[in-house]
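so i finally got all the pieces together for this one. its two components total, 312 residues if u count the protein bits. some of the lines might not be protein, just check the labels. i wanna see the whole assembly predicted at once instead of chain by chain like last time, that was a mess tbh
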Amino acid sequence: MKAGVIVFPGSNRDADCMWALQDILGVNTEYIWHENKNIKKYDLIVIPGGFSYGDYLRCGAIARFAKVMESIQEFSSKKNKFILGICNGFQILLEAGLLPGAMLMNKTLKFICRYVNIVTENNNTPFTGKMKKGQVLRIPIAHNEGNYYCDETILNNLIKNDCVVFRYSDENGNVNDNTNPNGALYNIAGIINKDGNILGMMPHPERAMIKELGSTDGRLIFESVIKYIKNN
Amino acid sequence: MAHVKIIVTLKDGVLDPQGKTVKFALEKMGYKKIEDIRIGKYIEIEIKNDKKEKLEKEIDEICDKLLANPNIEKYKFSIE
């Protein structure tokens, strides 16, 4: 399999995603410059975190018009092609309409950078096959706009279709207002599209790959999708 | 040259953490009569003049595509 990590001006977690995929998990991985439209050869594309285009106007608002994003629309409609948007990557997927909803400023008005617990709500996706339902992962967040918002109709559809994959929880998987770091609606930390090939999440799995970093739970997400791609 | 003034604000019902915090600060300063504060963006555009309808259509398009996110924001504009 072949993976790609998109690089926008202002991306800053691209090297971490490359390290996670290539150095830690041994996946053949290349950087994809944002002007590159030729992305057919990849099986998995990661849209990394950072501050694409300085986060001007709204996070991800300008990145969604980059040339590579035109190809991403087509890429996402193909079977066995997978997209993982992390943090700013998630924001870009929302702005591009590849996932529903939008991000508001954190309820606390502060940039939050710390480990959080997220509970796996749906383990029946290509990105969560290695987890058990209800499994709690410890993965860091680092964002100022992670306060997920959508209208009631969209939220009901997300829940009904099992598209809410991760929710902010405590270490036992309990979800409530106290376990919500940023005010996200329904404690949403990550959602997937109906076809199950586009996952957007605010926590950074690429920063939880080795025990020296405090957690190896991020591996489960990458390993799940790698295993899925290799078996299909 | 036409001068376009655009105001983008959060939709009613969408929580505005900034507005809430500013309201809280003003209340602490003694301004107790404030009911609500919403914070938005103000954008100015200089654009080659066109027929009014055509220009309005184009500004709508610019707002819908980029300047505002219809999931959370609404906008209004005036052309001078």
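Chain A touches chain B at residues 57-58, 61-62, 65, 94-95, 100-102, 104-109, 147, 149-151, 183 (CB under 8 Å).
Chain A has a mean pLDDT of 97.
anyway lmk what u think
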